């Protein structure tokens, strides 16, 4: 029996690589549903290439155009968030890969879990905003949430068959981004073009800017806290410019396990699609002699305050991580549009966090979504009033 896979965000960086992986394993995996926001040209190509029964897009008009273009094949087109939810809850869907960007992943992830569908989770914002809710639901429904994010996939692999009580700390590696060696003065003048030139990974625009500010590491710390139930004092970030060691787990006896490989998302994607099985592929094997040296250094929280803000938001908990995440999304897109300078990204987030009175404890979905909306409005206002947007 083939596994029916649904991909939310199929036209993005992770989605396209997931389809490539599925293409290698057509005997075991079938693409059952695809969702994009507005890129109907690529979505149509993907539907035809994989003979996909269901496709979803963000807006009604795009869905109509797509349905018309696909009238010679038997594909049903769905629309909006309701379309995503219908797709993931379909009785024939076996595994849902959540690879949309931003908070749009939260509701579909919860829906998949409530329908007892295993989730391969690339979208880290879902756990940042709603980690407690998602992991509680996964536990209650006995549903695995298999990480796709490279660091969390590495940690998942290093934890396999080990006793969780023996873990001393998780060590998340990060490349340091394109400005690892930039001075404070140079950071003031960073352009979107320069920030989009990641040194080791090819990714979507939003995560690439997050890597440049180190917010990506901050989001990953919160993601790890929820996925692996380890508190913030035992999650460390280390800068590793080569992106070969994808993360590590330190155990109480002094042993440290790491997962290594070339920086290639197709490895963690394949791992998540087949977990707990491992499959062969034709990817280039790691050759450490050609890498020659692996280096590590502490992150600089003064030049990269976003990482500090994420630890703060995580430790405050409640709705604060959702507020931080939403403000970051607004600030990143504002920077990309040339409205605010690079260093204002962290300033906007900090202001929104200061203004927020967090709902503590474990907020429900409505509480999280309300905090997310509040923060987006607040961030726009802060940008307009104080950062020249
Ligand atoms: N890229 C990477 O290597 C990694 C990514 N991640 C995480 O994975 C997620 C995806 O990243 P990435 O692939 O880089 O992002 P991209 O920006 O490349 O792709 C985003 C995808 O989501 C779709 N999309 C966006 N909003 C919606 C929505 N509201 N409804 C439906 N579809 C939507 C886009 O559709 P359209 O094309 O039509 O706009 C596109 O298919 C992010 O959360 C990121 O942090 C984690 C680790 C590594
Ligand atoms: C590929 C992946 O998992 C990204 O999250 C990656 O880690 C981004 O690069 P940085 O390490 O520079 O944030
Ligand atoms: Mn990552």
Automatic annotation (TrEMBL):
Q: Which GO terms describe its molecular function?
A: 1-deoxy-D-xylulose-5-phosphate reductoisomerase activity; isomerase activity; manganese ion binding; NADPH binding
Q: Annotated pathway, please?
A: Isoprenoid biosynthesis; isopentenyl diphosphate biosynthesis via DXP pathway; isopentenyl diphosphate from 1-deoxy-D-xylulose 5-phosphate: step 1/6
Please give the cofactor(s) recorded in the UniProt entry for this protein.
Answer: Mg(2+); Mn(2+)
Q: Where does Mn(2+) bind?
A: 149, 151, 220
1-deoxy-D-xylulose 5-phosphate reductoisomerase N-terminal domain span: 5-131
Q: Where do the annotations place 1-deoxy-D-xylulose 5-phosphate binding?
A: 124, 150-151, 175, 198, 211, 216-217, 220
Q: Give the EC class as a word.
A: oxidoreductase
InterPro entries named among the record's database cross-references: DXP_reductoisomerase (IPR003821), DXP_reductoisomerase_C (IPR013644), DXP_reductoisomerase_N (IPR013512), DXPR_C (IPR026877), DXPR_C_sf (IPR036169), NAD(P)-bd_dom_sf (IPR036291)
Write out the entry's keywords from A to Z: Isomerase, Isoprene biosynthesis, Magnesium, Manganese, Metal-binding, NADP, Oxidoreductase
Where the record annotates domain DXP reductoisomerase C-terminal, the positions are: 260-377
In Gene Ontology terms, what is a biological process of this protein?
isopentenyl diphosphate biosynthetic process, methylerythritol 4-phosphate pathway involved in terpenoid biosynthetic process
Residues that bind NADPH:
11-14, 38-39, 123, 125, 204
Question: EC number(s) for this protein?
Answer: 1.1.1.267
> Which Pfam families does the UniProt entry name for this protein?
DXP_redisom_C, DXP_reductoisom, DXPR_C
Top-rank lineage group of the source organism: Bacteria
Q: Which reaction does it catalyse?
A: 2-C-methyl-D-erythritol 4-phosphate + NADP(+) = 1-deoxy-D-xylulose 5-phosphate + NADPH + H(+)
Boundaries of every 1-deoxy-D-xylulose 5-phosphate reductoisomerase C-terminal domain copy:
145-228
The Swiss-Prot or TrEMBL record describes its family as follows: Belongs to the DXR family.
* NCBIfam families in the cross-refs: Dxr, PRK12464.1
Q: What does this protein do?
A: Catalyzes the NADPH-dependent rearrangement and reduction of 1-deoxy-D-xylulose-5-phosphate (DXP) to 2-C-methyl-D-erythritol 4-phosphate (MEP).
Question: What name is this protein filed under?
Answer: 1-deoxy-D-xylulose 5-phosphate reductoisomerase
Species annotation: Thermacetogenium phaeum (strain ATCC BAA-254 / DSM 26808 / PB)
């Amino acid at each position: 029996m083939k596994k029916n896979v649904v991909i939310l965000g199929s036209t993005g960086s992770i989605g396209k690589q997931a389809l490539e992986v599925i293409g290698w394993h057509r005997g075991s995996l079938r693409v059952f549903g695809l969702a994009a926001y507005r890129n109907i040209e690529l979505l149509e190509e993907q539907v035809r290439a994989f003979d996909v029964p269901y496709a979803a897009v963000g807006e009604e008009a795009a869905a109509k155009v797509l349905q018309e273009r696909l009238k010679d094949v038997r594909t049903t087109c769905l629309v909006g968030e309701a379309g995503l939810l219908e797709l993931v809850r379909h009785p024939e869907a076996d595994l849902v890969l959540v690879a949309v960007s931003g908070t749009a992943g939260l509701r579909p992830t919860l829906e998949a879990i409530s329908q007892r569908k295993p989730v391969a989770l690339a979208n880290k914002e879902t756990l940042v905003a709603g980690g407690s809710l998602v992991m509680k639901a996964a536990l209650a429904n006995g549903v695995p949430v298999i990480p796709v994010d490279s660091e969390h996939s590495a940690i998942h692999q290093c934890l396999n068959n080990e006793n969780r009580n023996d873990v001393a700390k998780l060590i998340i590696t990060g490349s340091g981004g394109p400005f690892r060696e930039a001075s404070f003065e140079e950071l003031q003048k960073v352009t979107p073009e320069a920030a989009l030139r990641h040194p080791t990974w090819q990714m979507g625009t939003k995560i690439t800017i997050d890597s440049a500010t180190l917010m990506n590491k901050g989001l990953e710390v919160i993601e790890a806290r929820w996925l692996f139930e380890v508190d913030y004092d035992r999650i460390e970030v280390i800068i590793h410019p080569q992106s070969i060691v994808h993360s590590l787990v330190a155990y109480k006896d002094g042993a440290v396990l790491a997962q290594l490989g070339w920086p290639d998302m197709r490895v963690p994607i394949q791992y998540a699609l087949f977990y707990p099985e491992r499959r062969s592929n034709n990817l280039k094997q790691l050759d450490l002699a050609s890498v020659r040296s692996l280096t590590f250094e502490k992150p600089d929280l003064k030049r990269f305050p976003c990482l500090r803000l994420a630890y703060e938001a995580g430790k405050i908990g409640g709705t604060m991580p959702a507020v931080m995440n939403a403000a970051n999304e607004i600030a990143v897109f504002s920077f990309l549009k040339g409205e605010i300078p690079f260093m204002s990204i962290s300033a906007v987030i900090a202001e929104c966090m200061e203004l927020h009175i967090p709902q503590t404890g474990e907020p429900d979905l409505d509480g999280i979504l309300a905090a997310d909306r509040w923060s987006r409005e607040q961030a726009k206002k802060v940008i307009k009033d104080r950062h020249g947007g």
